[in-house]
Automatic annotation (TrEMBL):
Keyword annotations of the record: Disulfide bond
InterPro entries reported in the protein's UniProt record: CD80_C2-set, Ig-like_dom, Ig-like_dom_sf, Ig-like_fold
Residues passing through the membrane, by range: none
Record-linked Gene3D superfamilies: Immunoglobulins
Protein name listed in UniProt: Ig-like domain-containing protein
Highest taxon above the source species: Eukaryota
Pfam families associated with the record: C2-set_2
Domain Ig-like, chain residue ranges per copy: 117-204
Amino acid sequence: MKVQLIAPQYITYGETATLFCNHTVSDDLLHKIEFMKAEKRIFQYIKERNPPYIETQHIDGIKRLEYSKNGTTIKLHDVHFDASDSYTCEVTMTTPIYTAGADPVYMKVIRPQSATPKITFQKSIYMVGESLEANCTSSAAYPVPYITWFINGKEVDITLVNHYPHTHHKNDAYLMSATARLKVEVSALHAGPNGDLEISCRATIPAFPMQHEKFADIKTKAVLVQIIPAPEMTSSAAILVRELTLSTILCILNAMHEFIP
């Protein structure tokens, strides 16, 4: 017997989560299907019973539970943050009497970002060799987004980024925004064909997805910064340096001549 729970890993606050208990037991051998939240039963289907359904009257974080006729699917309506938990299902067959459970799925209720991040910096034109500092701030969300910086589409080394403490939203204790500062010395290699450098930041939930997992929420902002070359030494300055160098050499030679017989 094989049992698998198909459920979303992330669900938006206030939406409906559908959980499907997929199993290989034939209908004539099926006895019972149960759904659990954190090892606590929230729904039970027993085929021979009339009516065959028993649902828990109160489930934390869930306003209403709906189920399918054959007991394999339940819908959790209007989910709140307390609905975030580990879910699983078990199937029992009649002959032979045997129960098998599915691997648990952790479902996280999120509140996505409402807008793209904001990038702020001191000026829009930088000279090669100057230090560029910029802040990226996400919009409020839950859980707090994670910020990643990019320069010309390439992810920035984490040593160039400083993550500040999260900011809590004044109207909702759950919601938080993130801010991260980028500090990098501008190089001529940063400038593109038009002399522009693109800096962008990405705010994501979760911070780092697991293998074969996608971001549940992602927002990106990009801006262009103009790069100008450092001023070259003027011709008069170059002549002065050359003359000073020549005079210095002559002084050294004269001094040596006085001491050499």
